[in-house]
Write a structure and sequence with these properties.
The chain is α/β, with parallel strands linked by helices. 40% of the residues lie in helices and 16% in strands. Helix 1 packs across helix 5.
Length: 146
């Protein structure tokens, strides 16, 4: 039995966060959304008190990540997620105002699945979220060996 996907939204702009959530709902996705307004709180949630990420073992997560956060860069968060054995399989959608081609290339090299520049074309965004949701509905995440 597969677990429902939890959407982790790391976005410091409250207006953007509301707009993103509204458009996720409008696209028919009803999964739980756990919002974070800064990287520190998001990292604490994702990696747990011991920093290992074991707290997320076996959980299906979709991470929406802004690169420009008040306390750390989204690049650092992306790197740490993709280097962690418990989190690296989680898809990461970067949503940011940065359209610099080097930054985009860097995000893909680090393992982001989708890079979307704000202001977001919400039809494309909703389509990307639906496709990732479909991915989760047909793929069962194998449990890591203990």
């Amino acid at each position: 039995m597969t677990q429902p996907v939890t959407i982790i939204m790391i976005e410091d702009d409250e207006g953007h966060a509301r707009l993103i959530e509204r458009n996720i709902r409008r696209s028919g996705v009803n999964n739980e959304i756990v919002p974070f307004a800064n990287g520190t709180d998001a990292m604490r949630h994702l990696f747990g008190a011991d920093g290992s990420g074991l707290v997320q073992k076996g959980r299906a997560l979709l991470i929406l990540l802004d690169l420009n956060l008040p306390d750390m860069t989204g690049i650092d968060i992306l790197r740490q997620i993709k280097e962690n054995k418990h989190l690296r399989a989680s898809p990461v959608v970067v949503l940011t105002t940065t359209d610099d081609s080097q930054e985009i290339t860097r995000c893909y090299e680090l393992g982001c699945n989708v890079y979307i520049t704000k202001p977001v074309n919400y039809e494309n965004f909703a389509n990307a979220i639906r496709q990732l949701g479909l991915f989760f509905s047909v793929i069962q995440v194998p449990s890591a060996a203990t």
